[in-house]
Amino acid sequence: MNKAANCSSNTKLLAVSNLCLMGLIFLLSIVRPVHAQNSAATNPDIQLLLQKIKERDEVIEDLNRRVKLLESQQGTSKLQQQSPSTAVAPARQAQSPESTNHTQSPASPPAAEKPVQQTQADTKPQSQEKEKQSAGEFEVDALAAERALDRSLIQAGALLLPFRQMELQPFVNYFRRDDSFPLLVTNDLGQLIGVRTADVKRNEFDTGFIFRAGLPFESQLELRLPARVVNQTTNIPEGVTNVNDITRTGAALGDISVGIAKTLFRESDWIPDLIGRFTWDSASGKLTSNDVPMGTGFDDFRASLVALKRQDPLAFTTSFDYQTTLRKNGIDPGDQYILSLGASLAASPYTSLTMGLQQIWRQKTKTSNTDVPGSDDVISIATFGITSMVTRKLFLTVTGGIGLTNVSPDYFVNISLPYRIAR
C-alpha cells in the first residue's frame, strides 16, 4: 500500500515539474524577442545598419520611378525586362535581417551604390546604340525647330518680336521681267500705217536693310531702307526708229518705309492669332533714272491684317492688304488689294520650309484724270522658300517666286540674313 502511495506521489511530482518546465519555456519565448529588440534599439551599430538599409530602399524606389519614366518616354522594351528585376532583388534581400547581419557590417559602403551602377550599365548600351544611328537619322530638338519656324513667321509678318528684342535683316532681291507693249507706226505725213510690238526686258535689283524692334503691348516697329538698280533693254521693231535696241541702267534710293504692327488677338481654340499693321511707304525714291522707270517715288499707305494658325510643326498664314497711293506729277496709281496665303513647316531642328500664293488686284492708273487703258490687271505669284540657322542668332533665308500671269514678274529670288539683337 505504501508502495502504491509512493508511486502516486512520484507521478504528481513529475507532472508538477513538467508543468513548471513548460511555463519556464513559455516565459523565455516571450522575454527573448523583447530582449533582442531592446538590445537592437540600444546598439548603435545595428541602428546605423538599419538606417543604411532604409536609405538604400529609398534610392531603389527612386531609381524604379526614374526607370519607369524613361520607359514611358522612349518606349524601350529592354528597360522593361531588366530594370525591375535588378531593382527588386536587392529589395528582397533587405527585408531579411538575418541575411544583412551576415553579409554587411557598419563599415561597409552603402548597398544603394550597386543598383545605381547596374542602372548605369543598363542605360550605357542604349546611348551607344543612339550614337550608331545612321547619318540620315537625328533626334529632333523641338526648341530649335520652333526657333527656325518662328524666324520664318517673323519675316512673313505673321509673328512679332518680343519686347526689347531687335532684328537687323540685310537683303538682296532680284526680279526678272519680260513685257511687251504696242507701238503705233506712222509715216512722214503722220498717217497711221501699222502697229508694232516692242519688248521690254528688265533686271531689277533691290538691296538694303530691314530693322525690327519689339515694343511694349505686343507691338513692333518696322523700318525698311532700300536702294534700287534697274537694267532695262527695249527692243523696238524695225522701221519705227533708227535704233532697234536701247539699253539703259538706272540707280536710285528706294522708297523708305516705316510701319507699326500690333497683336490684336491671341490664338485660342479655332480663333487664330491676328496682327494688324499700318505702313507708310515714303516718296524718297525717284520716278525715273537715266530715262528708266524705277517704279518708286510715290507715297503709299498700306493697312493689313495677318492671321496665323499653328499646328506645330505646321503653321498657316493668311493676310489681306489694302494699299492706296497719292498722286504725283499728274500720275495717280490705282489702289491695290493683296491676298496672300502661306504655309510653313519645321522640316528639321534648324530649318523650316515655306510656300505660298500671292494675288494682287490693281485698279486703273489715271493720268491727268484720264484712265490709262490696260493698267488694271491681276498679278499672281507662287512663292517657296527655306530658312536655316547659321548660328544661334543668325539665320539664312532664300525665297523664290514664279509669276503666273502675263503682267507678273517672270521670276524673282530673295536672299536675306536676319540677325537677332537681344537687349
Automatic annotation (TrEMBL):
Highest taxon of the lineage: Bacteria
Start and end residues of each stretch annotated as Disordered: 72-137
Record carries keyword Isomerase: no
Composition bias type Polar residues, residue spans: 72-86, 93-106, 116-126
Annotated TM spans: none
The keyword ATP-binding is assigned to this record: no
Signal peptide: 1-36
Protein name: MetA-pathway of phenol degradation
Species this protein is from: Nitrosomonas communis
Highest classification ranks of the organism: Bacteria, Pseudomonadati, Pseudomonadota, Betaproteobacteria, Nitrosomonadales
